[in-house]
Amino acid sequence: MQRSKKYTTLAVAGLAAALTVSACGTGDDGSSGSMGGMNHGTASTSSTTGSATARQGDVMFAQMMIPHHQQAIDMANLALNSASASSEVADLARQIKAAQDPEIQTMNRWLREWKAPASSSMSHGSGGMMSEADMKTLAAAQGSEFDRLWLTMMIEHHEGAVDMAQQVLRTTAEPDVKEMAQAIADGQNKEIATMRSLL
């Protein structure tokens, strides 16, 4: 789990850099890059730059959160299909599926509306996501060990999602993105507290 935790930090740092890079790029002459415009000194150009940067962050948020949510649903399904999962873990799994499946559908719709690709650089072992080996270990766990692994992994997974949600809240200008990101942060922080109490 230490390796996955290290990648969580790296992925969030990478997201933070990607969300701001377009606003900071400069050409060889010191002027702003293609998304700059500060050299003109006009409010309208500055506003356009800010809007483009915010939308870039919104797109990346959706592209990364969709596979992140999908893995949470996969983990929830493991709990719901396991004879070893406690009733408390099964209840949490149902709650996670009920919250995150509609959010996936909404984010896929946003990407279509923004004419943005659905693909992302989110991969196993980053942003709190479990590696393939982690998922196989969880699937093979039995008895009380299943609950312990599931809760430990889902806490780390949720922490990655909360970090991404908090990052986009600092950059987005889109009310719907703000609403979802805040809901993710609030809901998953609450679930983290519940899961920690069960360990």
Automatic annotation (TrEMBL):
Residues covered by region (Disordered): 28-52
InterPro entries to which the protein is assigned, alphabetical: DUF305_CopM-like, Ferritin-like
Keyword Signal: yes
Segments of skewed composition (Low complexity): 41-52
Signal sequence coordinates: 1-23
DUF305 domain boundaries: 58-199
Lineage, highest ranks first: Bacteria, Bacillati, Actinomycetota, Actinomycetes, Micrococcales
Biased amino acid composition, Gly residues: 28-39
Protein name: DUF305 domain-containing protein
Keywords from the UniProt entry: Signal
Keyword Oxidoreductase: no
Domain of life: Bacteria
